[in-house]
Amino acid sequence: MSCDFFELANPGVRVLQPYQTGQPVEELQRELGLTDVIKLASNENPLGPSPAVINSLADVIPELARYPDGSAYHLKQKLSSFLNVDTAMLTIGNGSNELLELLARVFLRPGLEVIVSQHSFVVYPLITRALGADLVVIPAKDYGQDLDATAAAITPNTRIVFIANPNNPTGTWVEELDLLRFLDKVPGEVLVVLDEAYCEYVDDPDYPDGIALLARYPNLVVTRTFSKVYGLAALRIGYSVSQPEIADLLNRVRQPFNINAMSLAAAVAALGDQEHVRAAVEANKQGMERLLFACETLGLGYIPSAGNFLTIDMGQDAAPIYEALLKLGVIVRPIGVYEMPNHLRVTVGLPEENTRFIDALTTVLGGL
Ligand SMILES: Cc1ncc(COP(=O)(O)O)c(C=O)c1O
């Protein structure tokens, strides 16, 4: 007897659309018969990880038959001294996405509300709806989060406010004074999740360090990742810093071995090589300057970005431009799902990749 599994699914799950990842390089090569494809679509670190990471992975190979350390002891020790926080405040996740999801699973249920900004990271709506909670979307201000409107939208049902700082896909960020003014207005039982996936790239003296604010705001949770500046996106590892009580709750719902042994070893090694982080930040800065210059030259608008990506206004439907770039072997990110159909998001790549993108974009725009 056949069964309508869709009808059996949780109502929140039925309204979801699967997350669209950037098109893999290999897939495009197969589809279009291209050999030389570059991908500037997922905000990865073009330099890759520190060489120390590669050595650390080799050390794990003899131990592959064993379960990893479910307590992430070594990584927590290392993070604790690096961040100057107690280990009890740390939770390690399979990518920072897992932390976002664990927070949702601990704190959300039907009837409760989550507040996000328009154009904010797509995972927040996904996890909110999956748990049957209500999503409240605040219209963006200059593509960024309007913190006054966010504070004004808090109701007795609000349980989480997500703030991506900087935000993906807009690259916008909130400054410390604005954040403090906002946090002062938020009731203690509303969690503010400050998603700092790109924090290492930010070059603004007014950018707040979320972790330094934790003592003052117990309802604050900071999430960070090894996927971006540390170059470990494939290994899926991130962490949150929160009050120990919140970390304890997250620990109750996570899988016992949510982080594999290679990721744990790699993260420890990556943290130990801050020189590599500085090199990646510097390379990003130079690449960003080139992209900005190219936008000026091509007469294209863009959203000033604090991250390792730039969102460019094509001034028209960006879908045909995206497709034409694909045909030239350049994968960027269309962001229609973020209500930005005229924009394309491009990740800052290696110098030769940036050149390739700029040349391809110039060709495509010239042919329109
Ligand atoms: C704003 C933001 N938060 C979180 C993530 C999740 O990163 P990961 O799960 O790889 O740590 C991303 C990834 O693109 C992001 O852009």
Account of the 3D structure:
The protein has 14 helices and 13 strands. It is of the alpha/beta class and 368 residues long. Strands 2-8-7-6-5-3-4 form a seven-stranded mixed beta sheet, sandwiched between helices. Helix 5 (73-83) runs parallel beside helix 11 (261-271). The structure holds pyridoxal-5'-phosphate.
List the keywords.
binds pyridoxal-5'-phosphate, alpha/beta, 368 residues, four-stranded antiparallel β-sheet, 39% helix, 14 helices, seven-stranded mixed β-sheet
Please outline the helices and strands.
Layout: H1 5-8, H2 11-14, H3 25-32, E1 38-39, H4 51-60, H5 73-83, E2 90-93, H6 96-107, E3 113-117, H7 123-130, E4 134-138, H8 147-152, E5 158-164, H9 176-185, E6 191-195, E7 220-225, E8 238-241, H10 244-253, H11 261-271, H12 274-298, E9 301-303, E10 309-313, H13 319-327, E11 330-331, E12 333-335, E13 340-347, H14 351-366
Parallel strand pairs: 1-11, 3-4, 3-5, 5-6, 6-7
Antiparallel strand pairs: 2-8, 7-8, 9-10, 10-13, 12-13
Helix pairs in contact: 4-11, 5-11, 6-7, 12-14
The protein binds pyridoxal-5'-phosphate (PLP).
Pyridoxal-5'-phosphate binds at residues 43, 95-97, 121, 164, 168, 195, 197, 225, 227, 233, 238.
